[in-house]
From TrEMBL:
Record key words, sorted: Cytoplasm, Cytoplasmic vesicle, ER-Golgi transport, Golgi apparatus, Membrane, Protein transport, Transport
Compartment(s): Cytoplasm; Golgi apparatus membrane; Cytoplasmic vesicle, COPI-coated vesicle membrane
Reported function: The coatomer is a cytosolic protein complex that binds to dilysine motifs and reversibly associates with Golgi non-clathrin-coated vesicles, which further mediate biosynthetic protein transport from the ER, via the Golgi up to the trans Golgi network. Coatomer complex is required for budding from Golgi membranes, and is essential for the retrograde Golgi-to-ER transport of dilysine-tagged proteins. The zeta subunit may be involved in regulating the coat assembly and, hence, the rate of biosynthetic protein transport due to its association-dissociation properties with the coatomer complex.
PANTHER family membership: COATOMER SUBUNIT ZETA, ZETA-COAT PROTEIN
InterPro entries: AP_mu_sigma_su, Coatomer_zeta, Longin-like_dom_sf
Domain AP complex mu/sigma subunit: 25-167
Protein name stated in the entry: Coatomer subunit zeta
Cellular component terms per the entry's GO annotation: COPI vesicle coat; Golgi membrane
UniProt cross-references to Pfam families, sorted A to Z: Clat_adaptor_s
Family affiliation: Belongs to the adaptor complexes small subunit family.
Topological category with respect to the lipid bilayer: Peripheral membrane protein
Main location per the UniProt record: cytoplasm
One GO biological process term: intracellular protein transport
Length: 201
């Protein structure tokens, strides 16, 4: 049975640490308005099974795509999973954990994700802008959750760390390699731009 309940994300600035032996967060997802992937991270057992991931995303979108979780986050429970989600712009953000996980912790994670990305992507949280800034989005995911463990739920701290990592990557690439040799950061940026253009067609 699917259970939906309104729940505001009220835990600002809390840092929640999960036991390393039991990952708290199963996945962080950013999907577009059609349920297609923008950015996703899975953690724990079976996390690398693409078919399982896609089936989960399809089921999750089917249960949440027609709701109106904009002002507040919403909760959905199914298949031994609890997911807290919210719409921002034309994208859907999810933080999911096991059925026995604390939804307030997941809500804090979700809030950190949506707010930090809003700070980092100045052009607005839309599918196009997120794809154009995919490196920042993925760095934000990594700063919030690592291996299923919650690292940080203060959006300002997350955004600051992502900005610093981006600056470090840019500066570190400027001194290496010979003339005409692209740095790793430049190569990654070029690949990202090509991917974004392909997805935006």
């Amino acid at each position: 049975t699917v259970w939906l309940a309104r729940r505001a994300c009220q835990r600002h600035g809390a840092i929640v640490m999960a036991p390393a032996s039991a990952p708290l967060v199963k996945c962080l997802l950013v999907l577009d308005s059609e349920g297609k992937r923008v950015a996703v991270k899975y953690y724990g057992e079976g996390a690398e099974d693409l078919a399982t991931q896609q089936a989960f995303e399809k089921s999750l979108y089917a249960k949440t795509g027609r709701t109106n979780a904009r002002g507040e986050a919403e909760i959905v429970m199914f298949d031994q999973t609890i997911a807290v989600y919210k719409f921002v712009g034309d994208c859907m953000f999810f933080a999911a954990g096991g059925a026995d996980e604390n939804e307030l912790v997941l809500a804090a994670v979700l809030q950190a994700l949506t707010e930090s990305i809003s700070m980092l992507v100045r052009s607005g949280v839309e599918r196009r802008s997120l794809l154009e800034n995919l490196d920042l989005v993925l760095l934000a995911l990594d700063e919030i959750v690592d291996g299923g463990n919650v690292l940080e739920t203060d959006a300002g701290v997350v955004a600051s760390r992502v900005a610093m990592r981006g600056a470090d990557d840019g500066s570190s690439g400027s001194g290496g390699g010979g003339v005409g040799e692209p740095s790793f950061t430049q190569a990654f940026g070029s690949a990202r731009e090509k991917l974004a253009r392909a997805l935006l067609k």
